[in-house]
Structures are given as C-alpha cells and as structure tokens.
C-alpha cells in the first residue's frame, strides 16, 4: 500500500518536525497506575493533584501549574493504553496552546493520540462561529500516524456532509462533493440526472426522486478509479438527501432528522476517498443514487408498480420505504460491472435502531468469511457493528398479487431483515455482498463524538479490504 500525503492532516495535529516547538507534556494514567504517576511529581504537585480531585478516571484531566502560574504538565485519565479515543476529551477543554505526549505510566500510541485528538477537535461551524480555538498536539510523523489522520479526515467529511441541512445538501450538492473527491484523488466522475435516468434505465431512482424536480432533480452519481486488473469493489450509498416519507408522510418528529438520510452516501464517499487516497490495489466503482423524497402532483404512490433496472416489478406498499427502491437500481447496475464484492451503506430502517440502538450498525452479509473479517476488525479497532441474519424465509412478507414483490414487508415483523432481503433480490449469490444499516448519527455527545453526524463501521470495513 502506498501512503498518500497529498493533503495536510487537521491543523490541530502537527506532524512536521520543522514546526515543532516547546510543548506542554501530557502524562497518561488509568486509576490503577495513578500512584506510579504521583510518584513522579514533586510534593507540591502531588498536593495540587489531590486537591484538584484527579483520580485517573477515563476522560478526566488536570493541569499541574509551574512556579510562574503556567501549565507545567497535563495529567490525563484514560481507560487504557489502547483506547482509540484516549485523548479526545482534551482539545476543546485544554487552554489553547501546544501539547505533546509525555512519559506517563501509560504510553498512548502516537496514531491513537493523533486520531482521537483530530476528532476531539471537531466542531461543525458552517453556520456559526466555532468559539474557542482547539489546542494543538504535536506527534512525530509515521506511516501509522498518517493513516490515522486520513481516517480522521474521512470521518470529519462524513460528519460535515450529514450535519449540513438539506437546503445546502440536496442531490446536486452531494454530487458536487463527490465530484470534488474524484478530482482530488484522480477518480473518473460521471452522473445521470433527471430524465437521463429514464433514458439509461434507472427507473426506480427516477420514480422516488421525480417529485422534487425540477429544483432537486434525482441523479445517479458514479466514481470509478484504479487499475482494471485489480479486484473490482462496488461501493453503494443511499443518498436520500431528505425524506418526507412521500405520500405516506412522516410525522414531525420522524421527519426532524431526515437531513441525515443521505448518511449512507456519505459513508460510501468517505470509503471511496480512503481507497483512492491510499492507492489500494482495488478497482473502485462507487455509486450514489441521490434523491429527495418529496411530495408533489407526480409523487410515486402507494399501489403503484415500478419496473426496476433488473427487470423486477415492485408494488409500492409504502412510499416511506424509498431507500431500498433507489438502491435496487444502483445495485443492479453495480452487478452488471461484474464486481468481486459489493458493499452498501444505508440509513435504511428504524427497526435496526430498535434492535441495536444508535451505536451499532447492523451488518447483513451473504459471505461468512467476509463478515468474519469485518467483525474481527470491528473488535480490534473499536469500530462496532453487529451481524444480523439474512433469513430468507421472510421473503414471504413481500408477496404481491400484481407484481413480483412489494417494497415493504407486511405485519411490521423483522423490519431490518426484510429491508436487507429486499436488496438481496438484486445481488446474485455468487457476488460477495455486505449491507450496513447505519444510523449515521450520535444521539448524545461523547469525547470525540459530538451530537450529530457520524461515520460508523467504516474503519473496520477499510481494514478488512486493505
């Protein structure tokens, strides 16, 4: 693998030795090793630490002053040395200035320090001033540090895309973001817009997105990259930039966060970015069906029958089950290019959140070996996911009297599974396929993971295909 240094890391993490200067050391410890840390301090410093109430608990810190009243050092409590979020609570809490890793009882790997610091510095500031300037961390450059910062940059990209309101992140804006990533890393960009979708046989994408035209025309976004001799990987992301539910309209509470319904597209684009940036030996084919599921006189309706690119006829039971409808045309097109593997990301079902909550993406996979690689990487990298079954007996929930099948399972049973099974119709069994039902959102703030858009499971996926 070639490590690309074409972009500077986030400005809060300094890796260029020429830019290094005197910095305040951060000494890390957990509760068990706190006595060892205190033994390194002077009696005055120990009394200060005890008075401050520092006990080495994770995500706590105290600043030990010097004789002039400045900061002599920072004592940081961490869970353990391998915590990928070890320093994430510090950049926006420490006074602005330059810090470095000191020699405490626990040694934080430089790559974990850089990753957690870069994401701990994140604030979405598109519409208001960001407030205080984050503190800086200087760490020595290495391949691991560069790779960690690349992952942090990709995660910040997902957050920015998901956090942006739909007024500024419609299908055209999403296309512009994809075009920029292709331009930056040498990918070939292409898109089909509006009536071109019908002319080129993407009828399902057009059906869902047509009600938002002409202002928000539906489109299919494509990036191709890499040596054709390398194994082909198709990456597909659901790009529903806003979901009203269509004629089966959502309530106010259900619609409030629907700017994040393009979270799957943000994941697909971030993965494409990392593949191109790292020059992985992969032939990349990235696809994003980008639409706004809106309401108009030409909205697709409950009871309509839509023909898909694959030739299947779908009876629409629920216009709010639109993500799978736009994805099916993209998956069919991906299959035509004969990939070895297909990975799709989608904010597809509330049922996955009922089953697993907001922090665990649901993984559905038709290849046990591929799924095992994902799960192993997820544990190693603390990038959680949970495998769910493709229980094909539940295909009976899609039975239709007038079409090949419906777009929504009956009875409300197994909603995440049935959504995955719908997509399964469009991927031949001989193609390795993984579907991630992601929430793409932090519902509470944690160190390095503020409330708002989030990348989930992607670091584990990247490690599994690298």
UniProtKB/TrEMBL annotation:
<keyword id="KW-0378">Hydrolase</keyword>
<dbReference type="InterPro" id="IPR011356">
    <property type="entry name" value="Leucine_aapep/pepB"/>
</dbReference>
<dbReference type="InterPro" id="IPR048816">
    <property type="entry name" value="Peptidase_M17_N_1"/>
</dbReference>
<comment type="similarity">
    <text>Belongs to the peptidase M17 family.</text>
</comment>
<dbReference type="InterPro" id="IPR000819">
    <property type="entry name" value="Peptidase_M17_C"/>
</dbReference>
<protein>
    <submittedName>
        <fullName>Cytosol aminopeptidase</fullName>
        <ecNumber>3.4.11.10</ecNumber>
    </submittedName>
</protein>
<dbReference type="InterPro" id="IPR043472">
    <property type="entry name" value="Macro_dom-like"/>
</dbReference>
<keyword id="KW-0645">Protease</keyword>
<keyword id="KW-0031">Aminopeptidase</keyword>
<dbReference type="Pfam" id="PF00883">
    <property type="entry name" value="Peptidase_M17"/>
</dbReference>
<feature type="domain" description="Cytosol aminopeptidase">
    <location>
        <begin position="318"/>
        <end position="325"/>
    </location>
</feature>
<dbReference type="GO" id="GO:0070006">
    <property type="term" value="F:metalloaminopeptidase activity"/>
</dbReference>
<dbReference type="GO" id="GO:0006508">
    <property type="term" value="P:proteolysis"/>
</dbReference>
<dbReference type="GO" id="GO:0030145">
    <property type="term" value="F:manganese ion binding"/>
</dbReference>
<dbReference type="Pfam" id="PF21337">
    <property type="entry name" value="Peptidase_M17_N_1"/>
</dbReference>
<keyword id="KW-0464">Manganese</keyword>
<dbReference type="GO" id="GO:0005737">
    <property type="term" value="C:cytoplasm"/>
</dbReference>
């Amino acid at each position: 693998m070639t490590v690309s240094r074409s972009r500077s890391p986030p400005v809060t993490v300094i890796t260029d030795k020429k830019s290094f200067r005197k910095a305040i050391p951060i000494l890390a410890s957990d509760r068990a090793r706190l006595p060892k840390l205190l033994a390194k301090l002077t009696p005055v410093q120990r009394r200060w630490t005890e008075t401050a109430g520092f006990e080495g608990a994770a995500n706590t810190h105290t600043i030990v002053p010097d004789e002039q009243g400045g900061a002599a050092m920072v004592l940081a409590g961490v869970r353990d040395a391998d915590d990928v979020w070890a320093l994430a609570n510090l950049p926006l809490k420490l006074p602005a200035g330059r810090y470095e890793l000191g020699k405490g009882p626990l040694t934080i790997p430089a790559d974990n320090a850089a990753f957690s610091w870069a994401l701990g510095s994140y604030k979405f500031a598109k519409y208001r001033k960001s407030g205080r300037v984050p503190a800086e961390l200087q760490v020595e450059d290495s391949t691991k540090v560069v790779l960690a910062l690349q992952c942090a940059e990709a995660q910040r990209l997902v957050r920015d895309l998901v956090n942006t309101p739909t007024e500024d992140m419609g299908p055209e804006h999403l296309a512009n973001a994809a075009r920029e990533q292709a331009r930056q890393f040498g990918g070939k960009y292409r898109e089909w817009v509006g009536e071109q979708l019908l002319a080129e046989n993407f009828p399902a994408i057009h059906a869902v997105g047509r009600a938002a035209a002409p202002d928000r025309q539906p489109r299919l976004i494509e990036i191709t990259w890499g040596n054709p001799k390398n194994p082909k990987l198709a990456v597909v992301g659901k790009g529903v930039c806003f979901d009203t539910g269509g004629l089966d309209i959502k309530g106010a509470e259900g619609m409030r966060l629907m700017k994040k319904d393009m979270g799957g597209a943000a994941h697909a684009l971030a993965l494409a970015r990392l593949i191109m940036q790292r020059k992985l030996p992969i032939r990349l084919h990235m696809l994003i069906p980008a639409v706004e599921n809106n309401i108009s006189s030409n909205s697709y309706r409950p009871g309509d029958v839509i023909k898909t690119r694959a030739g299947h006829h779908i009876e629409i039971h629920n216009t709010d089950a639109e993500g799978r409808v736009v994805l099916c045309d993209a998956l069919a097109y991906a299959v035509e290019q004969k990939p070895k593997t297909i990975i799709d990301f989608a904010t597809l079902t509330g049922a996955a959140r009922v089953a697993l909550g907001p922090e665990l993406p649901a993984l559905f996979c038709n290849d046990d070996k591929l799924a095992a690689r994902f799960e192993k990487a997820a544990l190693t990298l603390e990038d959680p996911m949970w495998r769910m079954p493709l229980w094909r007996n539940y295909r009976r929930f899609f039975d239709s009297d007038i079409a090949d099948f419906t777009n929504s399972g009956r009875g409300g049973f197994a909603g995440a599974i049935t959504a995955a099974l719908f997509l399964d119709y469009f991927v031949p069994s001989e193609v390795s396929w993984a579907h991630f039902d992601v929430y793409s959102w932090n519902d509470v703030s944690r160190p390095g993971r503020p409330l708002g858009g989030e990348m989930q499971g992607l670091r584990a996926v990247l490690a599994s295909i690298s």
